[in-house]
Amino acid sequence: MSKIKTDEIEGLSNSELLSVPKELSVGTAAATLNVGNTIFTNASAGSTTITGEGGTTTTNIQQGLTKSWVYHSQDDHLIDDSFNFTSITDTAVGRTGYTIANNMANAVYPTPFSGWDATSFMTTSQGYNKTTTFWNNAHSGGDFTTPVDASEKGETSIGDLA
Description:
By secondary structure, the chain is an all-beta fold. The protein folds into 2 domains: 21-64, no CATH class; 66-158. It is built from no helices and 11 strands. Strand 1 (31-35) and strand 2 (38-44) form a beta hairpin. It is elongated. The two termini are 36 Å apart.
């Protein structure tokens, strides 16, 4: 294998642009890539960090991503938009079951949501009866006891994928 050592690469037709092949490998499994003021560090398989806005902290990209999200109405339980969801199920007034396509690593993960209904303030509820592919969530009105269907609802899962 040939090796090229250089401090700078400049584009041929435009000194500000550089064309790269379909796949570019940089360094070893523990590589650092500087793109402008942004630093990407690949410490191991599935562990990539990026330097934060202030330049002093880092965020693990895999840990910092939402693993699934869905936007729907509990009035008709039709999915308006989603990522990594296979279905939602109306289980009762104010209650919905969520099934995701790619398994979570375990059944201990947060499932925050937001909900709105014109007639009632929504309270928050953490998912329950969780498995690695499914959870239920219940929502009540401002009195914290009466189940209410949300006209607009967003649900997410955060944690490690299997």
